[in-house]
What does this fold into?
Amino acid sequence: MSAKINRKLIQKHQIDIGMFYFYENFIVAEIKENVILNFESGRELFQLASEYYKGILPYIYISNRINSYSINPTEHYKLENIFSIL
It folds into this structure.
């Protein structure tokens, strides 16, 4: 699969867990220090992603890991049905 990458920033959002930059085909995330990222803490991010991508385009999530934070490794299974194009 080949997709055109558009590097034009659509919008950026500062939310409780960090700063998120939304582009046409991808999200760049800068999670705050010591956050524990899981389904519940990421709920606002998931809402934003649903608004921007609406199941139309495949997109990717890029973590600009400038801070130390934790991810619950089993939580991503909860997202499979919600974000099938991620």
Observations:
- The helical segments are 43-53.
